Amino acid sequence: MRLALIQMSSEVDSRDKNVAKAMDYVDAVADERPDLVVLPEFFNTEYFPFYRGYPDYLQYAETDTGHTITAVRRKAIEHNVVICATILEEEGPGLYFDTSFLVDAKGEIAGKYRKTHPGGTRSLEKMYFRGGTEFPVWDVKGFRVSAIVCYDNFFPETGRCAALGGAELIIAPFAAPAETFWESLMRIRAVENGVYVAPCNKVGPEGEYQFGGASMVVDPFGEVLCKAGSEADETLVVDLDRERVFAARQRYPMARDRRPEIYGAISSTDSSVRGM
Would strands 138-140 and 143-147 be described as parallel, antiparallel, or unpaired? Predict the structure, then answer.
């Protein structure tokens, strides 16, 4: 499979301009004939959860027939490519999710992943949308693909749930600042699950905030195949070899050796359980 990541900045209060910019990048990478193109989290708007603007920022929410996904669907058809686009989704009145839409080459919505862990430290995501509950896996050109959004990747359980569902590639739309552990986190997630991991981040300033870029593709052995810079828009295109998934899982057979019968503390709701 040929994978393309579009690392880009977004302008404040400029949805249509941001969408047009993203579609121009899709046009540009289409010359390299990717099978799957990934855009960053909230590429079409500024990262509004940094601000206490509820409910005003809910105007950014769209359905799957809204301006952004309609533009994505047209480009998917035009270039015969699968596109992952992550936006604030309006499911219904008063019900919102941070949703990765997987749009297939026919312009149909092949699936959705709704961010399962809305952030609540520097961001105010819990104020704006609720968390999803499922870890879907989709077939893209013979690869089993999952999407896990931004903060979700800080929880090893999310990558493991995707892998248990059959994922061989985890695409990870991000809107994140620079972190010292960024690359290490992605490499660990790849190795512990025997999957490719591909974070696609925002970059550059938005108001008073700075996004870290450094989008990358990591193979199942933890090798960084390619990595973008941390200052500017950039596209990455890389070929993935499914045989690497099989080789890594044979070399590090966690699927064989894991013992779910003793991991009850992970999913316990007992308030007496200490720690995390």
Answer: antiparallel
